[in-house]
Amino acid sequence: MYDAIIAGLGPAGSTAAYTLATKGWKVLGIDKARFPRYKSCGGCISTKIERILDFDIKETLEETAFGATFTYKTGRAMDILSDRPVGYNVMRDVFDNHLLNKAKEAGAEVIEGLRIRGVAEGGGFVTVFCDGGQEFRAKFLIGSDGASGVVGREYFGLDPKEAAISITAEVPYGPAGKTVQNRLFIDFGSIPFGYGWIFPKKDCLSVGIAGDAAKVGGRVKDYFNEFVSTHETLKGLKIDHRDGWTVPVFYSGAATPVRGRVILAGDTGHLVDPFLGEGIYYAIRTAKAASVAIDTALKAGDADLSAYKEWLEKEVYAEFRAAEKLSDLVYNHPRLWYSIIEKDHEIMQRYYNVIRGEEAVDSFYNWAYNKVKSKPWKVLRRWLESRFMPA
Ligand SMILES: Cc1cc2nc3c(=O)[nH]c(=O)nc-3n(C[C@H](O)[C@H](O)[C@H](O)COP(=O)(O)OP(=O)(O)OC[C@H]3O[C@@H](n4cnc5c(N)ncnc54)[C@H](O)[C@@H]3O)c2cc1C
What we know:
By secondary structure, the chain is of the alpha/beta class. It has eleven helices and 18 strands.
């Protein structure tokens, strides 16, 4: 009998295993993959990660981004750079392996290469059923098996279709060399309700496109092909391999992260920012909070995990709801949005402060709304007034 089992050992699971093992609990982490393993991802972590980490991740950082070159449908390029970093780029095989090693060093037991098939609760414990008929028991379970896992979908009934759909590729640098480092490339308008990106790493460019699954329909490959064949930065580069994946962004029906002795963290609980699709920071942050709730329950000898739900409501869902409003504004009208930021770079400069964790999304939204309203752009103003009210 373990104190806690952690289902899936991405950033959420490894953080939970590390946190609970550090507190002295008997922890078992299980992942279907053997690490280091690839994860389809842009791999850009906002600098606010520094506020929540318990250990150094410097050795895993490949690039630091000081802003972005933006495009609209791969044209109208403009640089909006800052003198302070906004993001750190990592390769997920290296980054996730680093986090898992920290969990192992802290004393967590880990089984790699074992798929979880289902979970059940009864008699004051949770049973985890795995391939080959193997079963494990614990007082608590953290579901952190990500977008493709079983805990969120099957045990909590969360909807996998509430997601963005994506294609990514890792593209080795071409003759252009590394002149594109220290920034991100973000493209609006190339895919419905989403964006395209190029995130430079040490040896390659992580390239991808993602948009709302329902709005993209079956056309994600077409959007990706158009994006990579027309973006200036990718000219002459060869793309050999592509990966398709989903980004389980927040939706209001996902706000049920606790069921009995089972608690969700990271992608499993759709704890992904619906504007940027940023999930690594939230995986780590929510896993830490879920672990604290379990630690408290273990110490009290009860099964009360409601503090986690209250914390999420206050600290995370409120941010995500504001990010949903920003998504509506930007992704429903990418051309108009692009014209606004083309005219006024300060809007993106200020949004960088949100990425850095220095300003809340709703405060940014209200500021941007009022700023645009006060400009002599009559068309924009009328449009805003007809559609959007301040938060
Ligand atoms: C195309 C794309 C681009 C993205 N870009 C960014 C970005 O630039 N920045 C950012 O912050 N976020 C980004 N994200 C989101 C980010 O990848 C996720 O939010 C993050 O990986 C969440 O971590 P996690 O630990 O919750 O889940 P995961 O990282 O998915 O880890 C889940 C783990 O569970 C394991 N698992 C799954 N099923 C089972 C099972 N049945 N049994 C046992 N183990 C299982 C998997 O092997 C995996 O190791 C992107 C996502 C996608 C798809």
